[in-house]
């Protein structure tokens, strides 16, 4: 590929994940000259079956999407170790290449700060993003049903019908009904029927880390759309820094090609869409005599308020077949405890009420009914020492009765949680690597414990022999790898990095399309909100052009 700069560009987009792809597609379709600079490679679709095979082999250790090494080095110096590379992908498509594909809207309470905790309000409300949510659902091809009584208001049906509940979901249903807990469908960015030139899901079950059929949406779809509209997409060109002119505007993105040669891509507008870790890193790397603390950082908040969702779960075995691992994604969940995490759960069998242990603030709680609990038969077979009939007998005994629940709780924005530069370690181009300084905080721990209490009540009602719990004391809990909050949105340049139009306060032609602009984390998977904000950002950039 020729990786020289385009002589004319209206917009330069940094990053070809879901945000960058949607920004590029919308602006290119509006007739603007767009260049996308992506740090990682372009992956061959025909290679996906091989990557799937790698993923299911017990001996496989590492990323099937080629993450790791000097290029992706990082530090994690915080109170809690943050395993950054576990769920990152650098390449065309970004982390949607291996995501699970759940796409929920944030609730109005997430935006207006009306949760029963100290989360601040966003400078936009749900209605500001409502039309963009609908656009994002159509763009991705979201399959869902209108059966969630706790969902925020919407104007139109989902583009595709939802997936039916799995067999293990049906096992949970009776227990949840006994406890007065509502189950409902999960909106998924995967085709329940043919859509947008892609076929329906055929059930490989390896959604994480790879969908071989392409039925699950990934951002390469909109990268290709952008290219069809005339956009130029360069892969393996990590941006080293942004340069500014005498007026303080970005004049060029300086990128390196695989042979180490540096080039300058000039444009009228620049959009950063490289995620909640690499965006603040790039801004900090772009420090200069005029911006000694980094670009767009007059507030000192670039990299601050890093947030993630924490996983809470529990599971075990049931004296019945559960058909574990027949479905590789969620088909049922519960948002009943999202806006009201203190809601009591009546355990009918033993006349006991499950309530929070204290009156202290809690995060919203999203509960999940896991279809992929327990090991797969392939994993058990390939790791066993037995053969033939003995192995078959062991598989019949060991496989098929695992069952589990999961859930997410969000962190409050904490200034001490941040992404900064580790100058003692450098990447393959000699740049300081990102350092993630992360801690949980008491509210997250309380919320995880509350989620575990509800999960145990359901599992006990179902008759599960609980053998593991992932909660506030660790034991398998950890981040959901949803990087949020490092270039937060606001109206005050002293307390935020970007304004409600996603443009940085300090630099007139620099915008950010990413979960890095999130003010709070909520507890919903963030990708649909990322997509909605990206489309909003594109419209504002188009207005300025």
TrEMBL record:
The keyword Oxidoreductase applies. Residues 421-440 are annotated as: Disordered. Pfam families: GMC_oxred_C, GMC_oxred_N, NAD_binding_8. One of its GO terms (molecular function) is oxidoreductase activity, acting on CH-OH group of donors. The keyword Ribonucleoprotein does not apply. It comes from the Archaea. Keywords: FAD, Flavoprotein, Oxidoreductase. Residues 413-534 form the Glucose-methanol-choline oxidoreductase C-terminal domain. InterPro entries: FAD/NAD-bd_sf, GMC_OxRdtase_N, GMC_OxRtase_C, P2Ox-like. Residues 170-310 form the Glucose-methanol-choline oxidoreductase N-terminal domain. Its cofactor is FAD. Belongs to the GMC oxidoreductase family. This is GMC family oxidoreductase. It comes from Haloarcula rubra.
């Amino acid at each position: 590929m020729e990786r020289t700069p385009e002589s004319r560009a209206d917009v330069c987009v940094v990053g070809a994940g879901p945000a960058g792809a949607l920004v590029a597609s919308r602006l290119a379709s509006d007739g603007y000259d767009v260049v996308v600079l992506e740090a990682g490679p372009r992956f061959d679709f025909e290679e996906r079956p091989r990557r799937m095979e790698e993923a299911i082999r017990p001996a496989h250790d590492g990323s099937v999407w080629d993450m790791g090494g000097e290029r992706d080095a990082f530090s994690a110096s915080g109170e809690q170790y943050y395993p950054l590379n576990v769920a990152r992908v650098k390449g065309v498509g970004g982390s949607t290449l291996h995501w699970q594909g759940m796409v929920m809207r944030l609730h109005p309470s997430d935006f207006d700060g009306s949760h029963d905790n100290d989360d601040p309000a966003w400078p936009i409300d749900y209605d500001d993003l409502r039309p963009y949510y609908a656009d994002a659902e159509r763009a991705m091809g979201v399959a869902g049903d209108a059966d969630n009584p706790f969902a925020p208001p919407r104007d139109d049906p989902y583009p595709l019908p939802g997936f039916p509940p799995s067999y293990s979901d049906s096992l949970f249903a009776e227990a949840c009904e006994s406890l007065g807990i509502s189950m409902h469908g999960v909106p998924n960015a995967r085709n329940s029927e043919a859509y947008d030139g892609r076929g329906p899901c055929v059930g490989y079950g390896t959604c994480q880390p790879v969908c071989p059929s392409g039925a699950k949406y990934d951002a390469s779809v909109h990268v290709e759309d952008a290219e069809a509209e005339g956009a130029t997409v360069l892969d393996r060109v990590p941006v080293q820094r942004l340069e500014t002119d005498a007026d303080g505007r970005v004049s060029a993105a300086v990128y390196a090609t695989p042979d180490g040669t540096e080039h300058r891509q000039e444009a009228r507008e620049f959009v950063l869409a490289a995620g909640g870790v690499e965006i603040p890193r790039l801004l900090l790397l772009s420090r200069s005599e005029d911006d000694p603390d980094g670009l767009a950082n007059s507030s000192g908040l670039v990299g601050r308020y890093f947030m993630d969702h924490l996983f809470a779960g529990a599971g075990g075995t049931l004296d019945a077949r559960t058909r574990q691992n027949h479905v590789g994604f969620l088909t049922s969940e519960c948002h009943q405890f999202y806006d009201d995490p203190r809601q009591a759960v009546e355990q009918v069998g033993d006349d006991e009420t499950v309530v929070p242990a204290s009156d202290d603030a809690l995060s919203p709680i999203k509960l999940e009914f896991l279809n992929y609990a327990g090991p797969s038969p392939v994993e058990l077979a390939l790791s066993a020492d037995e053969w033939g009939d003995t192995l078959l007998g062991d598989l019949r005994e060991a496989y098929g009765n695992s069952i589990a629940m999961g859930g997410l709780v969000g962190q409050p924005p904490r200034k001490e949680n941040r992404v900064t530069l580790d100058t003692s370690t450098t990447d393959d181009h000699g740049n300081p690597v990102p350092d993630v300084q992360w801690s949980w905080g008491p509210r997250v721990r309380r919320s995880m414990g509350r989620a575990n209490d509800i999960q145990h009540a359901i599992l006990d009602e179902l008759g599960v022999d609980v053998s593991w719990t992932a909660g506030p004391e660790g034991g398998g809990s950890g981040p959901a790898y949803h990087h949020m909050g490092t270039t937060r949105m606001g109206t005050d340049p002293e307390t935020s990095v970007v304004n409600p139009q996603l443009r940085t306060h300090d630099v007139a032609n620099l915008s950010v399309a990413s979960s890095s602009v999130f003010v709070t984390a909520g507890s919903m998977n963030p990708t649909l909100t990322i997509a909605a904000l990206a489309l909003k950002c594109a419209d504002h950039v188009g207005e300025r052009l």
